[in-house]
Amino acid sequence: MDGTVRFTDVYVDDDIVDRAASVLRSTRYVKGPVLEEFEAKFAEFCGVDHAVGVSSGTAALLLAFRSAGVEAGDDVFVPGHTFFATASPVLSLDANPVFVDVDPETYTMDPEDLAAKAATAENPTAIAPVHLYGQPAPMDEINDIADRYGMAVVEDACQAHGATYRGERTGSLGDVGCFSFYPSKNMTVGGDGGMLVTDDAELAETARRIRNHGRDESGTHVELGLNYRLDEMKAAVGIEQLSHLDDWNAARAAAAAKYDERLGEMQGIETPTVADDGSHVYHLYVVRSENREALREHLSARDIQTGIHYETPAHLHSAVVEQMDETPTLPQTEILCEEILSLPMHPRITDEEIERVCDAIESFVGVPA
Ligand SMILES: Cc1ncc(COP(=O)(O)O)c(C=O)c1O
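Above: the input record for the complex with pyridoxal-5'-phosphate. Below: its predicted structure, written as tokens.
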């Protein structure tokens, strides 16, 4: 079969284009009713009282940390195995990221390592579990540790729109949740965008204020903020995309089940482990191989796109290393980053494409074990 098996795919239809065009024609581009509608729908989707649309997932995290009271010198626990943007807002507030290792099976924050590090921290203030690849972190254990030290829990749900943990949606599992609508995510707004969600009315109000230059209802700038707003046109795209999200997540899960079935039999390939207490929305379908580089080249030679999320652990990027007194060692994170490979995954991937990827992997590893 010819053609490239694409790693990801973005959906656009006439409804999306028409809704965005109607905002363009209205000439009301910011701070309007379309964003309010998107926020209300997204809050309902997550099962929370408040949603605050912002300019990116990174902005959501920054506003969440600030609104939850993180200040210079505070310790914020973040996993080593994540995108840089979980940690960079912490550093930009002059707070200290304390990097925690991940569970070798699920790749989410390891509660044991978290508990050990929290016990010796000077100013334990917040925990930022990441629902990595679309799988919720072990929130019961993390919330217990947060309660023990009076810490806030800021969920980085940037890869996990719609995933559930013990029946509840991500974003509703801690004090505040953060989402990204970057185009490759499970839903987008047609460009960069993000959302902060919470049940805490005061926290939501603070985030809304910081999003808009720290300005209160009376128009006074009562604290330092910048412009982190989400445009009306993007909100319009978001409303349409959100209406498809459950179906798209189901299609991702079905594609993952097909991958699991074939790849689970292959020697030297480790397929994702899903914890019993959650659902996985497969933002990424990530396998492990000790021959990752050779496997990647083998797939590339057969026109199969892949990705690596992430090649460098968050705590080993030079921008982080230079700001920390000591660079921690996180054994599970560091070995993972050498072995992981993200396979093509999106709601419209076909059975033939999945078969082609699996055939190519089989020809790399040899016959089924
Ligand atoms: C885990 C994680 N955190 C944070 C972000 C930052 O989101 P954004 O790219 O919208 O700023 C992303 C997305 O790229 C992410 O995957």
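Notes for the reader.
The longest strand covers residues 50-54.
The two ends are 26 Å apart (CA to CA).
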